[in-house]
Specification:
Layout (H helix, E strand, L loop, with lengths): L9 H12 L14 H8 L19 H20 L7 H9 L3 H14 L5 H22 L2 H13 L7 H17 L5 H31 L1 E4 L10 H13 L6 E4 L15 H12 L11 H8 L1
Helix pairs in contact: 1-5, 3-4, 3-5, 3-6, 6-9, 7-8, 9-12
Length: 302
């Protein structure tokens, strides 16, 4: 289902990056809001193994026009489906929707994989700006009454069609996605849902940025090599390099990883250091300061 759903975790981002690598070459469908040069890397199939994105060809400034173009193209594709004078069927409705948004899908998968691992001020700004726009774009599709009517019609008539099980499953998936997204709500409730989704998208982007920033700045610092007993020499050397990078010459720093547990805990023999590392990991996002996520979580839960 090719609808914009920004990934919010590193694992998800890695999964969708691999999926993005398998995308075939994409052709522009209309005049672009930006210039062709601005988004050319997203149109070109990568020659790298498994079609991994050529990040060396993508500038941070390419993402805004690429997102704009991707959303514009999918709007045109959805309009074609909705305005089709032919009766709705599997090909002209479900398959057509499944094939829509290829450029947007590629752009967002590459972008969110990148910002989940290696971001900067500009990318954070773009993420904060694009998250509610993607939410609105998704709602524009999922809450489209005319489009849902066509999907519903196909679902109600597909038993008489010569379709395989995968195709029938796809019909059910789309119908379920639309219903869960609010397609059966009243117009008033749909608007309220759009507002909520936009707010959630902004908060979720802020949450993700805070998590990554907190992890990047956090590290457990130790004074002596003896405290690192149990770690392989390579990891001890890396801890020394991490401390030097933080201008803590002569010390060792164990950076936190953005995972539910810290792998170093399995090797360290120093109990007190293990406790410090575990506590630092468990209290991420709740230590005060610019990256504290407690208020963000409270707003999301409301």
């Amino acid at each position: 289902v090719s609808l914009p759903k920004p990934p919010t975790t590193t694992v998800t981002a890695l999964m969708v990056l691999v999926s993005a690598c398998a995308q075939p070459e994409i052709k522009p469908l209309m005049d672009k809001p930006g210039t062709e040069m601005d988004i050319a890397p997203f149109f070109t199939e990568s020659p790298l193994p498994f079609n991994y994105p050529q990040f060396n060809l993508i500038r941070d400034t390419d993402y805004r026009p690429a997102f704009a173009q991707g959303m514009a193209e999918q709007r045109v594709e959805v309009d074609v489906i909705v305005n089709n004078v032919e009766p709705p069927n599997f090909e002209n409705t479900v398959v057509a929707l499944e094939r829509s948004g290829r450029l947007l899908e590629r752009v967002q998968r590459i972008f969110f994989s990148l910002v989940s691992a290696n971001t900067n001020d500009l990318l954070d700004e773009i993420q904060s700006e694009i998250a509610p726009k993607l939410s609105g774009h998704s709602d524009e599709i999922l809450l489209n009454s005319a489009l849902f009517a066509r999907i519903k019609n196909v679902r109600e008539t597909h038993e008489a069609l010569p379709l395989d099980e995968e195709s029938r499953r796809l019909i059910e998936e789309y119908y379920t996605d639309f219903v869960r997204a609010g397609a059966l709500l009243s117009d008033k409730d749909k608007q309220r849902l759009r507002n909520i989704n936009g707010e959630l998208a902004t908060l979720q982007a802020k949450f993700s940025q805070n998590v990554l920033s907190e992890v990047n700045k956090s590290a457990v610092v130790v004074d002596t090599r003896d405290e690192l007993l149990g770690l392989p020499d390579a990891e001890i050397a890396a801890a020394g390099d991490a401390a030097t990078a933080r201008k803590l010459d002569g010390k060792y720093a164990i950076p936190l990883l953005n995972t539910s547990a810290q792998p170093t805990l399995a090797s360290l023999q120093n109990r007190a250091l293990r406790q410090r590392l575990l506590e630092a990991s468990l209290t991420r996002g709740s230590q005060g300061g610019d990256f504290d996520n407690r208020n963000v979580i409270t707003q999301i839960a409301k």
